[in-house]
């Protein structure tokens, strides 16, 4: 698809003039393997699949943008796009294809991750795009005049920051606690089989408050946790002690009611 244009690197700032552009008052639409540049510095490559009932438009858009302020991770919201590639200052962000999943895939409201894993277990987001946010490393940004290329319809593209305002955790007593980096080690330590909560804040941020904590049989999801019939009244107190201490945010679960599988639900701000 557009191999010559890709070989010449016309999606880069120093490659846009490597080809001869033909001026026209009415640019061609849905022409196979055609690149065109609009007045306001947009580049498009369009493709039409022939001899099938399907038609597909792939494109490359070039525009100058400035990076969003702050230090939060930056992502492209590609939910309104079709299929194609994206670059920033010549660095390839990658392929995108935010295809919608089927509403009949069998999604569940709550998932029990215990037991045997199956590929169709715990589906979420039925009927929604399978991909949406595409991370852009901040190190790829210049202070201004960044050249961004995207494919598809550019009118609905947005550049967003991910700002973390809270963290949640839900860990049960039977939750495996071995970290991936310890899998190849013969001895992973004395806490090999002890379920543990690990929370890590973004750079230059701290936990300011414990919004919810319940050790017992809590239920719900992040933002809507509720206490169960079994609840340790000291849950918040214990978590607050960990928060105010200058140590990593770590909490080791220990059983209170024997014979009941207990969990710790936690939300901090």
From TrEMBL:
PROSITE patterns: SUEL_LECTIN
Pfam families attached to this UniProt entry: BetaGal_gal-bd (PF21467)
Keywords annotated in UniProt: Glycosidase, Hydrolase
Organism domain of life: Eukaryota
Molecular function (Gene Ontology), one example: carbohydrate binding
InterPro entries named among the record's database cross-references: BetaGal_gal-bd, Galactose-bd-like_sf, Glycoside_Hdrlase_35, Lectin_gal-bd_dom
Protein's GO biological process: carbohydrate metabolic process
Signal peptide (UniProt feature, chain positions): none
Boundaries of every SUEL-type lectin domain copy: 191-241
PANTHER family to which the protein is assigned, alphabetical: BETA-GALACTOSIDASE RELATED
Protein name (record): SUEL-type lectin domain-containing protein
Organism: Cannabis sativa
């Amino acid at each position: 698809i557009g191999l010559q244009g890709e070989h010449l690197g016309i999606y880069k700032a120093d490659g846009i003039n490597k080809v001869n552009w033909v001026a026209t008052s009415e640019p061609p639409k849905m022409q196979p393997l055609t690149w065109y540049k609009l007045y306001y510095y947009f580049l498009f490559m369009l493709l039409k699949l022939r001899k099938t009932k399907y038609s597909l438009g792939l494109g490359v858009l070039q525009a100058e943008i400035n990076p969003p302020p702050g230090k939060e991770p930056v992502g492209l919201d590609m939910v309104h796009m079709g299929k194609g590639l994206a670059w920033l200052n010549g660095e390839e962000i990658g392929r995108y294809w935010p295809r919608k999943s089927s509403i009949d895939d069998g999604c569940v409201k709550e998932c029990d991750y215990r037991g045997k894993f199956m590929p169709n277990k715990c589906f979420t987001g039925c009927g929604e795009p399978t991909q949406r946010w595409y991370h852009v490393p901040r190190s790829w940004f210049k202070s201004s005049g960044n050249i961004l290329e995207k494919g598809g319809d550019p009118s609905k593209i947005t550049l967003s920051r991910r700002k973390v305002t809270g963290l949640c955790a839900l860990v049960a007593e039977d939750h495996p606690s071995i970290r991936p980096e310890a899998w190849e080690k013969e001895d992973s330590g004395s806490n090999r089989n002890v379920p543990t909560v690990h929370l890590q804040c973004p750079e230059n941020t701290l936990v300011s408050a414990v919004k919810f904590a319940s050790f017992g049989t809590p239920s719900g999801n992040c933002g809507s946790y509720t206490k169960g019939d079994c609840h340790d009244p000291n849950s918040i107190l214990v978590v607050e002690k960990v928060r105010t201490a200058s140590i990593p945010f770590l909490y080791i679960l220990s059983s209170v009611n024997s014979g009941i599988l207990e969990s710790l639900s936690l939300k901090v701000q």
